[in-house]
Structure formats: structure tokens, C-alpha cells
Amino acid sequence: MSAAMSGGFASMREAYEQSEGAASYYAEHGAKYRNPHEPALTAALAAALGRLETAGQLDCSTRRLRMLDLACGSGEATLAVRQWVASRAGRQQPACTAADPFTHQAFEERVGEPCRRWSFEDVSAGELDEEEPFDLAIAVTGA
């Protein structure tokens, strides 16, 4: 992992330990966060989405997918899904709802769309209860 990607630390574990926890780390570095594993994440998502499409469990050929990107970081998963959809002729780009209480600024700057501040705790407390169902939900964490 690049030290620049983790705020000058050799690993995210070290970053969290030196910052006295994830919340403290992201309070200081969240606006500039980039997932150091983005290329692997993009490849893994493309493979998984391809399998889901082949199995008939994911279809963006007739309508726009509704996607939830929880713990969205700086948008790595959202951008990977968009890239995968764009590689298929005649597909509509997904409607993405992104959420991250720590890296929302990095997401908004990179992706150019709003990001909710929901945490996993907010979701488990019912924050999504009023939302329409999602076709695809992604949560990438790496503590």
C-alpha cells in the first residue's frame, strides 16, 4: 500500500492504531482517502457482476439498477460498477445512493454526487426503511 494513500502510514492497521482508532483516523484523513486496493476491488466487482448477470440475478438491460454503496470511501465501488455497466452495450448507468460518515467529502469530490452520512449503526437502526429496495448493495470495509 502506498503511504500516501493511507495518510503516511505503512498500513491501514497502523494508521488506525497511531490515530487511536478508525474514527479518529478518518476525522483527520477522510476527505483525502483513497482505497489502496482499488485495482483489485474493480476486478473483483467486475467478475462478480458478470457472474450475477450470467445467472440472471442482475439485469441492467431494461432498467436502471438501484445501487447502495455503503462505507463508500472515495467512490471506488461506485466507479467500478459504472465502468462495468458502461462496458455493456445499451445499459443505463446505475442510480447510486452512497453513504459514509467519514469519507463523504472524498466521495463527493471524486464522483461528483452527494453522499449520505449514514453509518452501519444508522442502517441497523432503520435508516434505510423508507428507501425503495436496492438491486445491488455493496459495502467495502478494510479494518
TrEMBL record:
Gene3D superfamilies: Vaccinia Virus protein VP39. This is Methyltransferase domain-containing protein.
